[in-house]
UniProtKB/TrEMBL annotation:
Family matches, as InterPro entries: AB_hydrolase_3, AB_hydrolase_fold, Carboxylest/Gibb_receptor
Pfam (any one): Abhydrolase_3
Residue ranges constituting the Alpha/beta hydrolase fold-3 domain according to the UniProt record: 75-296
SUPFAM superfamilies in alphabetical order: alpha/beta-Hydrolases
Example of a GO MF term: carboxylic ester hydrolase activity
Protein name as it appears in the record: Alpha/beta hydrolase fold-3 domain-containing protein
Length: 319
């Protein structure tokens, strides 16, 4: 009943007194397919028995023919959805990653992680790192999953994500640097990253108190209620905190922002902070001034989405 509603956070979730969580979007799933008449074959493989979590693997069907033993670039993808909704199995992410695999001729591993509010942050970060470690256990060719053993080029590993997934992509690269992950990650694609803080990063950042408060409430009440510093938690406030980015564990970073996205100034400030940090890699910024948050997923066949798609594919096929 409506009276049993504790809180509502459109367009994401409703939370009820009995603890039930109703997700308002991102709940549909699409099955895998080993049908080799498709451009891409896919399958789900469990990487965490403890939490019953899987990755969805995508492989160009021509790679399964066995006629070409050349290793493929490896894309590790972390989906967005405010840490609350969506999954690697939803049509949005299944179709997008499959299209990338077709165009880039790469192997992709799309990560499932535990979501808030049932599993508040940092569960999603811990799961994503666990998946990265599981994937890298194949780097010597003797891991548990044949597709990764046989096809992944661990000299060309890229991690990419959008929104909350872009935030986590950054933190995976930071942890990779800290823990000296070997082989090294070649590049990360941070697309419309969900970075935030109590205060605006500059005079062009969102000044509207109600909007800032709404984002803060979602983080503090739903996503990460255990954060000591609220929205200034270094996991969320990457730009405004004293986080040292110089140890980022990759060679190159693509930062994509959209001019009409609430997070645009945070994304630009992140790129600027990274360039000034002493980190030795290359940073490229791509901006679509007339577009909004994750426009490339919401309208994937638009002209600007197609343009960004080509840039993303070019990034993850860097030799």
């Amino acid at each position: 009943m409506e009276s049993d509603l504790v809180s509502e956070h459109p367009p994401f979730i409703r939370i009820y007194k009995d603890g039930r969580v109703e997700r308002l979007t991102g709940t549909e799933t699409i099955p895998t397919s080993l049908d080799k008449t498709n451009d891409v074959v896919s399958k789900d493989v469990q990487y965490s028995r403890e939490h019953n979590l899987s990755v969805r693997l995508f492989l160009p069907h021509k790679a399964t023919a066995g006629t070409n033993s050349k290793k493929l670039p490896l894309l590790i993808y972390i989906h967005g959805g405010a840490w609350i909704i969506e999954s690697p199995f939803s049509p949005t992410y299944h179709n997008y990653v499959a299209d990338v695999v077709t165009s880039a001729n790469c192997l992709a591993v799309s990560i499932q992680y535990r979501r808030a509010p049932e599993h508040p942050v940092p569960a999603s970060y811990e799961d994503s790192w666990s998946a990265v470690e599981w994937i890298f256990s194949h780097s010597d060719g003797s891991g548990p999953e044949d597709w990764i053993n046989e096809h992944a080029d661990f000299g060309r590993v890229f991690i990419g994500g959008d929104s909350a997934g872009a935030n986590m992509t950054h933190h995976m690269a930071m942890r990779a640097g800290k823990e000296k992950l070997d082989p090294k990650i070649k590049g990360i694609a941070v697309v419309h990253p969900a970075f935030w803080g109590t205060d605006p990063v500059d005079e062009h950042d969102v000044q509207d108190r109600e909007m800032r408060s709404g984002i803060a409430q979602l983080w503090e009440k739903v996503v990460s209620p255990n954060s000591v510093n609220g929205t200034d938690d270094p996991l969320f406030n990457v730009v405004g905190s004293d986080s040292d980015l110089s140890g980022l564990g990759c060679e190159m970073v693509l930062v994509a922002v959209a001019g009409k996205d609430v997070f645009v100034r945070q994304g630009l400030a992140y790129a600027a902070k990274l360039k000034k940090s002493g980190w030795k890699g290359d940073v490229e910024v791509v901006e679509e001034e007339e577009e909004g948050h994750v426009f490339h997923l919401q309208n994937p066949h638009s002209e600007n989405a197609s343009k960004f798609f080509e840039r993303f594919v070019k990034f993850i096929t860097t030799p």
